[in-house]
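Whiteboard transcription, Tuesday session. T.W. wrote the C-alpha cells on the left side:
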C-alpha cells in the first residue's frame, strides 16, 4: 500500500516530462520510504533499477550489469561489464535514443566500494548531458555520506544535480491515512509512539488496541522495533555507545548542552559534535525561544517520536521486558502516556496551523512558528508559551495546547493573554487547542473577546 508523497511524485514526474538529462539526488534516513517512492515513480516507465549492496566493487558491478542487461533483454545473465565506466557509458548512450530512468539505490554502498565512481559519473554527465535523455537518480540512506560526498560544494558531483529531495517522515495528517480502524484518539497515540516513519507504521496493527500494539513491539524483545534504535545508530554512526548515552541523557531530562555533557561525562566540545550529528539525522532537535537567536538559551529534545517513546519507557523497564513481563511493563507505562502526549499534541497543533496558513485560512500570516520560554520580569518567574508565530512587528499568534481529559477552562485563556503582554505586539490572535473541548466560561469569554479561536482535537481531524 503506497500512501502520500504526492509532492515528491509530482516533482519527479515534472522532471521526467522535461525529456532532457536530469540528475536527481534522493536522500533521507533509513525506513522513511525512499525505495517505495522510487518504485512507485518508475512503475510505468522505462527504468533500470539497481540497489547497491555493502560488498566489494566486483559484486556491485556484477549486480549493476545484470540490471542493465536485464532491462535490455529481459534475461538474467552472468555477463558483466568490464568497469563501472563502461556500464554507465552504455546507459548514457542508450538514453540518447529514448527516455530512460537509471535509479541507483543505496548509492553510498556502491561509491564506497568503488572510490572513482563519483568522478566517473561526473565525467559522463559532462560528456553526455546535452545529448542524453537519461534521468539519473542517486538515492542514499547514509545522510552524512549523501550530504558530504554528493551534495557538498567540494564533492565531484556538486553542480551537476538538477534537483534534490530530502525524504522526511510523514506528518500527522498523512499518518492517519494509514489507519482505518483506530479511534481518533488512538491515531494521535500511534503518531506519538512511532511518528511518521512508514516502516514503523507498518509494525502497527489498527485491529488491535494501543496497549496490544505497544506490547507487541516496544515490550517484545523479539520484535523489529525493540532493537530499532540501536540498529539504526549502528548503521548511521561510528560510535553508537556515546550517541546512545547522549540520547538517553536528553530523554531523562537533560536539555542544555552543559547538562547533557555532565550526564554523559564528556567534554562539552565533544558532545557538541555528536549532538550536531543527531540533529542532522532528525533524531533530536535544537530549539531556541521563538524570535531569539541566543545559543546560550538553546535546548535539545528528541524529535523522532519512535526514539522519544523508546528512550522514555524501554530502558527503565528493560529488565522486566527481558523476562517476558510485558503486562507489568505496560502497567508502569500507561499512567505516563497522557503526559507524554503533551509534546506530541503541540506538534500536531503546529502542523494544523501551518495547513491553515498555507490555505489562507489563518488570521495571522506567519512565516515560522515555535515555542517560547523566558523570564517574566513583572512576576519574576519563568513563563512558557506552547506556540508563538509572528506576522510582523505588530501582529502575532499565541497558542496553548492541552491534551487532557478535562475540558479547558477560562484560566488557560486568561494565562495565555497575560503572557502575551510580555511582548510588544499591538495585535494578537489567540488559539486554544484542546483534546476534550472547552468549558462554557471559556467559550463565552472567547466569544466576548473576539480574537480567540478554540480548536478541539476533532476539529483538527476534519
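and on the right, the sequence the group agreed on:
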Amino acid at each position: 500500500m503506497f500512501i502520500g508523497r504526492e509532492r515528491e511524485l509530482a516533482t519527479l514526474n515534472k522532471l521526467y516530462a522535461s525529456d532532457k538529462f536530469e540528475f536527481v539526488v534522493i536522500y533521507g534516513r533509513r525506513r522513511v520510504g525512499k525505495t517505495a517512492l522510487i518504485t512507485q515513480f518508475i512503475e510505468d516507465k522505462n527504468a533500470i533499477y539497481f540497489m547497491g549492496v555493502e560488498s566489494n566493487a566486483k559484486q556491485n558491478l556484477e549486480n549493476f550489469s545484470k540490471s542493465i542487461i536485464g532491462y535490455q533483454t529481459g534475461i538474467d545473465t552472468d555477463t558483466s561489464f568490464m568497469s563501472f565506466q563502461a556500464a554507465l557509458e552504455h546507459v548514457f548512450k542508450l538514453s540518447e535514443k529514448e527516455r530512460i530512468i537509471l535509479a541507483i539505490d543505496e548509492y553510498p554502498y556502491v561509491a564506497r566500494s568503488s572510490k572513482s565512481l563519483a568522478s566517473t559519473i561526473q565525467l559522463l554527465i559532462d560528456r553526455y548531458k546535452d545529448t542524453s535523455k537519461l534521468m539519473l537518480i542517486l538515492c542514499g540512506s547514509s545522510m552524512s555520506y549523501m550530504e558530504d560526498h554528493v551534495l557538498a560544494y567540494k564533492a565531484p558531483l556538486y553542480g551537476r544535480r538538477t534537483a534534490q529531495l530530502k525524504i522526511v517522515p510523514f506528518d500527522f495528517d498523512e499518518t492517519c491515512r494509514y489507519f482505518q480502524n483506530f479511534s481518533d484518539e488512538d491515531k494521535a497515540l500511534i503518531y506519538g509512539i512511532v511518528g511518521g516513519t512508514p516502516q514503523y507504521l507498518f509494525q502497527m496493527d489498527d485491529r488491535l488496541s494501543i496497549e496490544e500494539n505497544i506490547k507487541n513491539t516496544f515490550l517484545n524483545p523479539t520484535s523489529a522495533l525493540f532493537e530499532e534504535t540501536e540498529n539504526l545508530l549502528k548503521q548511521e554512526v561510528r560510535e553508537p555507545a556515546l550517541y546512545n548515552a547522549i540520547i538517553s541523557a536528553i530523554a531523562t531530562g537533560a536539555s542544555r548542552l552543559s547538562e547533557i555533557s555532565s550526564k554523559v561525562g564528556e567534554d562539552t566540545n565533544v558532545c557538541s559534535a555528536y549532538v550536531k550529528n543527531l540533529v542532522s539525522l532528525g533524531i533530536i532537535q535544537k530549539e531556541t525561544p521563538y524570535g531569539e537567536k541566543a545559543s546560550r538559551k538553546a535546548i535539545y529534545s528528541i524529535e523522532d517520536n519512535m526514539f522519544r517513546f523508546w528512550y522514555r519507557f524501554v530502558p527503565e523497564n528493560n529488565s522486566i521486558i527481558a523476562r517476558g513481563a510485558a503486562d507489568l511493563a505496560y502497567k508502569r507505562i500507561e499512567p505516563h502516556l497522557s503526559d507524554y502526549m503533551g509534546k506530541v499534541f503541540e506538534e500536531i497543533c503546529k502542523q494544523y496551523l501551518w495547513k491553515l496558513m498555507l490555505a489562507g485560512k489563518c488570521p495571522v500570516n506567519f512565516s515560522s512558528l515555535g515555542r517560547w520560554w523566558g523570564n517574566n520580569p513583572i512576576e519574576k518567574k519563568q513563563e512558557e508559551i506552547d506556540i508563538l508565530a509572528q506576522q510582523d512587528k505588530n501582529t502575532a499568534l499565541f497558542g496553548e495546547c492541552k491534551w487532557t481529559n478535562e475540558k479547558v477552562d477560562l484560566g488557560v485563556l486568561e494565562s495565555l493573554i497575560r503572557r502575551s503582554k510580555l511582548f510588544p505586539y499591538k495585535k494578537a490572535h489567540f488559539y486554544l487547542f484542546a483534546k476534550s473541548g472547552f468549558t462554557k466560561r471559556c467559550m463565552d469569554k472567547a466569544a466576548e473577546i473576539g480574537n480567540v479561536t478554540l480548536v478541539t482535537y476533532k476539529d483538527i481531524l476534519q
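Someone added at the bottom: The first strand starts at residue 22 and ends at 27.
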